[in-house]
């Protein structure tokens, strides 16, 4: 059986898939210009928002050209939520103080290591 060659297509040479029946997503094209003078286009889905900057092939940050840049500037910026903000949404300062005192007591008793690993015992 080893002396017989496989007949037909070469493995990995061509795809048997076709684009028949495939519905492509709606797209729009945005243009970017980098500081080195490179101008290029990027196709994006109509559901996507074009970012203000895109990395150029030369590695520089290219700026968006066109109307999408103005739309982004008009949108109100979301306030940045820090870990502390999210923690304060879940617990009051009194509850956090109780948890801190419990953890400090465990640490002072030697049952809690500084690395955060608990000892058995």
Features:
4 strands, four-stranded antiparallel β-sheet, alpha+beta, 121 residues, extended
Report what the structure shows.
- By secondary structure, the protein is α+β, with helices and mostly antiparallel strands.
- It is built from 3 helices and 4 strands.
- It has helices spanning 67-74, 83-90, 93-108; strands at residues 27-33, 39-45, 53-55, 61-65.
- It has a 4-stranded antiparallel β-sheet with strand order 2-1-4-3, with helices on one face.
- The longest helix is centred in the C-terminal third of the chain and has 16 residues, at 93-108.
- The model has no long low-confidence stretch (mean pLDDT 81).
SSE map:
Blueprint: E1 27-33, E2 39-45, E3 53-55, E4 61-65, H1 67-74, H2 83-90, H3 93-108
Antiparallel strand pairs: 1-2, 1-4, 3-4
Gist of the model:
With 121 residues, the protein is of the alpha+beta class. The chain has helices at 67-74, 83-90, 93-108, and strands spanning 27-33, 39-45, 53-55, 61-65.
- Unreliable stretches (pLDDT < 50, length at least 5) are none
Largest sheet, in brief, is:
4 strands, antiparallel
The helical percent reads 25-40%
Determine the number of helices (DSSP H or I, runs of at least 4 residues). 3
SSE pattern: EEEEHHH
Number of DSSP E strands: 4
* Rg over alpha carbons: 29 Å
């Amino acid at each position: 059986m080893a002396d017989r060659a496989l007949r037909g297509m070469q493995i990995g040479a061509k795809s048997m898939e076709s684009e028949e029946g495939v519905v492509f997503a709606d797209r729009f094209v945005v243009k970017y210009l980098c500081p080195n003078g490179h101008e290029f286009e990027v196709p994006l889905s109509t559901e996507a928002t074009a970012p203000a900057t895109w990395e150029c092939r030369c590695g520089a940050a290219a700026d968006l050209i066109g109307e999408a840049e103005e739309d982004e500037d008009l949108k109100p910026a979301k306030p940045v939520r820090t870990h502390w903000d999210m923690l304060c949404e879940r617990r009051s300062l009194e509850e956090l103080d109780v948890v801190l005192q419990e953890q400090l007591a465990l640490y002072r008793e030697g049952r809690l290591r500084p690395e955060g690993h608990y000892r058995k015992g």
